[in-house]
């Protein structure tokens, strides 16, 4: 057997599984939206002509982008500290970062119900120290969803960035300092550009996870802060409107792919290794 075909043969089973269980269902879902008797684009016109659905789409984008931005900042700072920590301490910090991932999404989201509820931990603490006179309504707001999303997805950002930051040679940082660069300049001109690939990968993971999330918006946002995932579930499982559900899924796929492509292009421009 020629060696040039060995790689293709090894990749064939995985490629077929991806095609069978991912590409085919997605293609059929998209095709469903064009089979409506009112016209091929009628479901999309119905979606964007609805003020409620446009609001849900905008809210989902807003929450996802806010979650991604906050997770980027927190994840990068934490990953930088972890990457510079000595061996045993580094292991402990990585375990602490990964620990939230050992519990389910529903469990972690439900924990925030206990923290942010009117009789929850945070309200009781603020009342006890005299900051507020009566409990605040923190649940079922956009802020509560963002806080929970950041808590859910920041560990992914940390794990992605730790490996990237660890692979930045110390010689490069020391050379920057020896040439007279300040720590801020070294970070801006050396560390950050080399960390861009990890930042983009982490941003893609966080954005796609938060944009398609269902359990957390349902538990902490409810009907007041409905997002695309909950709207799609309602269309499919409550109203049994499969065309509308497929339309929502298609819009989510298009937006997710567009954002991933845009982030990839930004990464290529910012990464010094590609210039």
Automatic annotation (TrEMBL):
One of its GO terms (biological process) is transmembrane transport. The chain crosses the membrane at residues 55-80, 92-115, 145-169, 190-211, 242-263. It comes from the Bacteria. It is a multi-pass membrane protein. Coiled coil: none annotated. GO terms for cellular component: plasma membrane. It holds the Pfam family BPD_transp_1. Its main location: membrane. InterPro entries: MetI-like, MetI-like_sf. Belongs to the binding-protein-dependent transport system permease family. CysTW subfamily. This is ABC transporter permease subunit. It comes from Nitratireductor arenosus.
